[in-house]
Amino acid sequence: MGNRLTQIATRTGDAGTTGLGDNTRVSKDSLRVHAMGDVDELNSHIGVLLCEDLPADVRHLLVEIQHQLFNLGGELSIPGFELLKPEAVLALDEALATHNEALPRLQEFILPAGNRAASLAHVCRTVARRAERAVVALDKAETLKDTPRQYLNRLSDLMFVLARVLNRMNGGDDVYWKSERMARADAS
């Protein structure tokens, strides 16, 4: 891995390039930098979500996810390097199974709404999807391992499920989309 930062205002990026972990420099608008930025933004949004009152198991899970996203960012910053392990995807699968089991089946699409914690989880979900798209675009230009794409895909699903879990704190519920189909079914 490249040198750790000892100062922040290096001025080395003033010309529109940034250094990768392997000491190469790339344009700040490269696909790799976009993917790294989206993962960093996702991690920051999870940090905001962690400011909320959360169940202890959800808090622990989100902190672990932040560490794994940091691994993913490191992997993206060093072409050809692997930091995010397949076990991280399996951990998300297990969390999905656990949290899904406690939830009722969906009746209709839900809105990204509810209490503040659930709404922040929905923001994390959408940023995870964007990060996934950025990783897919990078993978078309440069071969990547499967784990980063799989991790972001599962993580976006998990953030949807966690939003549902968080909406149920203190007796809340999902906020369902009022579709025409549901309106007809309710009228019957």
For the structure shown, list the relevant keywords.
188 residues, mainly alpha, two-stranded antiparallel ribbon, 6 helices, 2 strands, elongated
Can you describe this structure?
Residues 8-165 form the Cobalamin adenosyltransferase-like domain. GO terms for molecular function: corrinoid adenosyltransferase activity. Belongs to the Cob(I)alamin adenosyltransferase family. It is an enzyme of class 2 (transferase). It catalyses: 2 cob(II)alamin + AH2 + 2 ATP = 2 adenosylcob(III)alamin + 2 triphosphate + A + 2 H(+). The protein starts with 16 loop residues before the first strand and ends with a helix. With 188 residues, the protein is mainly alpha-helical. Strands 1-2 form a two-stranded antiparallel ribbon. Helices cover 60% and strands 3% of the residues. Helix 1 packs antiparallel against helix 2. It is built from 6 helices and 2 strands, in the order ββαααααα. The chain has helices spanning 31-49, 56-77, 86-101, 116-141, 146-167, 180-187; strands at residues 17-19, 25-27.
Largest sheet features: 2 strands, antiparallel
- Mean pLDDT rating: 90
Strand content: under 5%
Which class of secondary structure composition applies to the elements?
Answer: mainly alpha
**Topology as H/E string?**
EEHHHHHH
Indicate the radius of gyration in whole angstroms.
Answer: 19 Å
Cα-to-Cα separation, first versus last residue: 63 Å
Protein name: Cobalamin adenosyltransferase
GO molecular function: corrinoid adenosyltransferase activity
Enzyme class: transferase
Biased composition (Polar residues): 1-10
